[in-house]
Amino acid sequence: MIIFILVESIMVLYPKHDLDTKCDYIIVLGALVNKNKISQSLKERLDSCVEYLYLTHDNPKIIVSGGQGRGENISEASAMKSYLLSKGIDEKNIIMEDKSRTTKENFCFSKKIIEGDSHKKIENLNVKVITTDFHTLRSKIISKRVGYANTTFYTSSSNGALFILNYTREFFALICNIIFNC
Fold this sequence. Notes:
By secondary structure, the protein is an alpha/beta fold. It has a single domain, classed as HUPs (Rossmann fold). Helices cover 46% and strands 15% of the residues. The chain has 6 helices and 7 strands, in the order αβββαβαβαβαβα. The strands form 2 sheets. A 5-stranded parallel β-sheet has the order 5-4-1-6-7. It has a two-stranded antiparallel ribbon with strand order 2-3. Strand 2 and strand 3 form a beta hairpin. Helix 5 runs parallel beside helix 6. The longest helix is centred in the last third of the chain and has 18 residues. The mean pLDDT is 96.
């Protein structure tokens, strides 16, 4: 119980809204698409991306990262790109990574895209990750393991009604990741 409380405290307190660090790339991590429609969680991540761009006036490349899962008629990346275009984001700034099925794959496949696009190693670039607040700590650990040196976050907030469920589920996913690198 002590470990659970300690880990949960770290997850809740982990930095989630970095506006100070300029970024070369943004990675928006995928979430559920229902047939062709983005889920509320994914919409909130994409709105956080738009908000971040508005607040910082940065003009980085944006990688929308997520493949096509069961019950999805299109890839998460395709749905995310369409949503960002509807919000006025310039298409030339959006890069689709549409093969990943896990957070680890999001980072691995995006890393290949970034290094190919920028012709620089990932450890020499600043990458802003857009995800949901409960997912930040595990995303940081995974990104470090696959070679990202400079990641910061700008997250959406958990749905209030699902806050406890999301953070509890994420505790077990984090422990699995630490022990089994899954």
